[in-house]
Amino acid sequence: MPKGPIRRAQLIAPFGVGAMVMVTDGTSLITAGLDHWYEREDGSEADDKSEFRVDEWRLAQSLGVEHFRLPPDFRKPNKGDGVLNAYLTLPFLRFPQWHFCSACDRLEKFHLIARGKVKCP
Ligand SMILES: [Zn+2]
Question: How far does the centroid of ligand 1 lie from the alpha carbon of residue 100, in Å?
Answer without folding.
Answer: 8
